[in-house]
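Batch manifest line 350
LIGAND: NAP
JOB: complex structure
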Amino acid sequence: MASPATQPTIRAWTSKTTGPPREALTLQTARPAPPPPTGNNILIKVSYASLNPADLFFIRCLPPWLPFRSSPVYGLDLCGEVIATGPAVTRTTVGEKVSGAMGLAEVTAGMGGLAEVISVDAGLVAKIPDETKLEMKKTVGAMGIAGQTALMMIKSAGVRAGQTVLVNGASGGVGSLAVQICKGIGARVVGVCSGRNGGFVKGLGADEIIDYKAYQPLEDFLATRFLHHELDVILDCAGSQELYSNSPRYLKEQGGKFVTCVGGWSQGVIPFVRNKLRPVILGGTPRPYHLFLLGAQGVFAEEIADYVEKGMIKDGPIDSEFDFEHVVEAYERLATGRARGKIVVKVASD
Ligand SMILES: NC(=O)c1ccc[n+]([C@@H]2O[C@H](COP(=O)([O-])OP(=O)(O)OC[C@H]3O[C@@H](n4cnc5c(N)ncnc54)[C@H](OP(=O)(O)O)[C@@H]3O)[C@@H](O)[C@H]2O)c1
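JOB STATUS: finished
ARTIFACT:
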């Protein structure tokens, strides 16, 4: 066994307290490196991590001193190179470049991508696509939480070619992938974003842009624009109760679907009770409501990689890139809620 002096160490972002990132986060510079993997685990030398709004909730609200998550590492998405595999691993091999995201169990236990080396279940990652089709650093969001959420929201809505899909929050991490996947499937995409992001969302493939800042209230504009209830699906990636409550004014009566991934401060409890359980006779909205919660999986990341290979996803848009030492600034950028695509942290060179 290595003596403490020779034991390999890594750098990782952890916390000792809850609070805003600037108060809570600290860069641990001599954290013991994960031991050789057992079972179905692999060691990944992390190249890039990317940030998600959920991180801010964990940093602010989940105590780091709980016994099962002491010294937690943050960051749900990562990509990098496999440097060791457990004896049961069949999904990947040493030297392969992979990308993926943490599942609920890993998040709860405080295992995150903002570390130079991480030990994870091989089932959480997938081989990255050909790097000529998508740069490695762009896979970290596309195959991570944002891309997987977009993919699974689209699947749960059953989006088909020829349908008209409205993506609310089309310029964000989830929305920018949702626009591309819907377009790749052959749907007509209406992107809702601010005017400053109109060109960006159009460039991702949206057929029509609606500037939510220019048309207030947005729901009144949608009721005029889609007077004949032309919308088949609404994918809400920004979190709007009004958009759902007013949906009978523009969403198809037969087969129209509303799917959101935003649960708000109550973590979905209030919208679920209000929108899912309340009968129409008591003021409920006569359109199906689905609140989607991702459980990240490597097979979802694999499907995204496949979409990239087929040219259905052309970009993993990056809002900004930060060095590993500047994770706090990266989280502060995330907290503005204004990111166009993903905020990426460079953990090590590719
Ligand atoms: N349930 C799940 O499993 C799950 C998974 C992933 C994400 N989420 C949630 O989904 C939401 C989106 O995540 P994200 O990663 O895409 O966030 P994000 O990248 O931080 O979103 C930022 C984007 O949202 C746009 N935006 C802000 N307010 C808007 C509004 N009222 N209407 C339209 N666009 C607006 C901003 O554009 P402007 O600056 O132009 O306004 C910006 O481009 C978050 O609430 C997140 O917590 C849930």
